[in-house]
Each structure stands twice: as structure tokens, then as C-alpha cells.
């Protein structure tokens, strides 16, 4: 998970689905058909070549890069979180946009490979120098190219994108002005500006070339540029000049509309392109996206906006991650006598910290369906229960609810059948369309963890024994072997409660050596958190261990660097 990241993306989310924005009028009146592929599959189905989501289709490589960018959001939140003993700041734990979670869910149970070093598909698929795009898929393909080029630009030795202001407004609507400023692209007002950025340069040694990355040679070797514009961005003569300049610079110029004196291909609503001069030749298929899907994806790629203020809510310290109202009296602590109503040999235990497993008398049950296991884990995180809509939205994001009720019932029926083969205990209660784990018949390691945290935080006494009890109750991250996208906020919130307590105990500890040990334990829980490293660095410095402090910081930077290099990310991310 640590490697699936590109530093510098947003933590803001898009939670609504606004209508397609009107196309703004810029330097002319550009008329485009704007259609996306019909939702025939009714699923974010993953195929060998790509992923279908509501609002579009993504090639497999692009989908993998989306999941990498999504993982970065959570890795960045881990890195930047500042542990607080009484009022933890969880304002950044909002779920990612629906299209992103749909892509994550589609790839969650499929073999994953790191995204390629460079997404060269547009360069390989389109004519050298450039092309015009016409037909009903023009805007969906244009948005797909926008996202594909920006994602590829997150890889070193890859792609940079130049887009005209008018074209960005056509593709993104009202979001263009605010979102465009936070995206890693170059926005130009005119076609002539775009042509100037493509001109070869012979700068004085050490002088930067516009659009050139640090360390890149003046030849731009290994670095390709894409220009995205529409056929009303300039005169015919200006567009011809841009095409000639692009050809000389080995850049790809894509015109949304007819290309003067150049090839123009037809784009259909499913993303397939066709060269009118070779109608029988199968064409490539490019990423297609509607406005909402594009905005969702770009939100997690963009640099973060200002963090929202976190008011002092006055909530109790270290609340339960998924359900602050969890009544502690209903939790089954390990030292309490069992309250099972049947034979004592049948004891059900749900383990969700680490690899999720349901155990009966210590023996694991095989749960065949991923959805069934997700139901168990979801209800463990939400002990007050969840209704059908909450469960289906989490397990099958982005799909219409009316088509999912049957899937949920199948998952629940299969789960109950599996449990009945080994026990007659009613594990899942169902009342008023609300499902809930029965705490009289099952105990959950997550519940015990939060009981232990609550008891330790209430007194902050007996530091060594209390902290060891927390570490014993937290053997691993929440469902650490699973990549279900709905897990991320809960996994991070649970981890934060542990390091919050670690920071609180370290601050109270009078023995500097013991305080240091606590902070080192906290770093073991979250090796990416910068604030824990800062506190440990200060503790080492106070003890006169300056070399050890330097080594600690060096290891932290190496850990973050490995997270970038695992997915071949540029060092300047």
C-alpha cells in the first residue's frame, strides 16, 4: 500500500453529481456532441483491457494509476496527521469521490501490478504530430486524454500537458477555474502561447526551459508533451503553425474538432476511434469520461486545497473510530466470563485486526464470498448496525442500489449458512432493515481494542502496563490484507486512536528513556507519520543522541522515498 502513491494530490472530495455544465463560449462557438458509453454492464466491471464505471471507461493502466493516486491520499494523510491526546483532527478522513472508489473496488480483488513507468497509449494510438477528433465521443475522449496525460505526468520521464483555457472550460465546466489551478498542467490563453512552449530552445547553461523538469536535458529526451485545444481556439493559420511546431518537437497536438490540413478521426461514444480514410481498419479505444467522473478523478490528482478549520467540538477523548456512541457495557472483554447462551464450547470470535477471520472455538470458518466477509467487517466497525443502503453503497460503490439488494441478500444468506454448519448461534440480528452483530454471541477484537484505549485514556496511569495492553490488542492494522476502498477511513481512524494515545502517554511520561520508547513504538504502528518522528527526534536530541536522531530522520525519508519509487514516481513529487 505504501508504494501505491503519488505525492501532491488532493484530499478534497466531490460528493454530489451535478448536471453536465453548459459549454462556455470562448473565442468562438464550439459545438460538440457529448455522449458517454451506455451503462450496459450496470457494474464497474473490470476486464483484461479496462474498467467500466458509471460515467465512463478507463484502460487498465489508467485505472491502476487512479488506484495509486487514491492510495497516496491515505498515505499522505498518515504522513501529515498530528497526534492529539484529546481532540484528534479527523476532518481529512472523508471518503474519496465515488468514481475513485468504484475504480478501487473494481480492482480490489484482481491481480495488481505497478503502473507502467509511462502511459504512452495516446502517443502510440494517435497519428504522429496530432489529430482532430470529431463525433459523439469528442468530449468524453478529450476528458479521458486530460486525465490520462496528467496521471502519466505523475511518473518521471513521462508526459506534460498543455491545454488552452477555453478547452479546459469546455471539458470541466465551472470546476475549470478552481480545479485547474491545482492540477499539474500548463494552461495557456492562446494557441500561439502553446506553440511557443513547444519551440526548441538553446538556453544558457543552467537556464530553465519552460515546461522542462529538473534534471532533464535540453533535448527533452524521454519527455513528451501533449497539447489539448479545440478548433475555435485560433485561426486556421495558427492551428497549422501549432501542428507544424508540434511535429518538429515530437509533441502530440489533439484538436477537439476538425484539424486543418491534418488527420481528423471519428470518436464514437464508447471511446473507439476510426480513421475515415481507413474505415475497415479497427481503431484504438481511449479513456472516456463524463463531467462528473472527470471531476472525481482530478480531485484526487490535484494538489490539496486549504485544509478546513477544525473547531474544538468538545467530544470525549479517543472516540470509537466508527461509532462514538458504542456502549462500553455491551462489549465482551477477554477477561470477562462468556455470555453465550448455548454450549460453552461454541465461542464465536471475529478478528478484524490483521487478516479478517471468523473463528468458532478457535477454528477459522471459510467464508467463500468477499461480500459476506465485508458484511462481517463492516458490522464490526459499526456495532450500532447498518441498513441495506449503507452496506450496498460500501461494498458495491457507484452502482444503482435497486440492482444490489439481491446481491446483499445472497451474501447474507451464504454467510448465515456457513455459520450454521458449525454453530446454531444467531450472530447477525436483523430488525427494521438494520443489521447488527449480536454482542451476546460474538466478541470482536476491534471492540476490545477500543475498550482498552478508552480505559487507558481515562486514567493515563500505569503507563508501561497500559501501553503494552494496547499494543497487545492492536496486532495489525484494520483488515490489513484487504483493499476494499470503504475501509480506508476506518483503518486510518483506528490507527490514529492508537498513536493519539501513544503521544499522550509519552507527553505524560517523566522518564525520558521511557518516553522515547513509547514514541518508537508509535512509529512502529505508523512509520509514515512525520509528527511522531519529530517528537522522537526531539527526545533523542534531549538525551544527547544527535547521531541517532539524524539516523531516525534519514530512515523516515527513506521510507517515504520507497513509497514513491515503488511506483516509479518522480523524486520531485
UniProtKB/TrEMBL annotation:
Compositionally skewed regions (Basic and acidic residues) per UniProt: 32-43
- Going by the entry's taxonomy, the superkingdom of the source organism is recorded as Bacteria
Q: Which Gene3D superfamilies match?
A: Winged helix-like DNA-binding domain superfamily/Winged helix DNA-binding domain
Question: Where does this protein have compositionally biased stretches of type Pro residues?
Answer: 305-319
InterPro entries per UniProt: AfsR-DnrI-RedD_regulator (IPR051677), WH-like_DNA-bd_sf (IPR036388)
Region annotation (Disordered) maps to 12-43, 302-325
Q: Which residues form a coiled coil?
A: none
- Name of the molecule in the record: Bacterial transcriptional activator domain-containing protein
The organism of origin for this protein: Micromonospora antibiotica
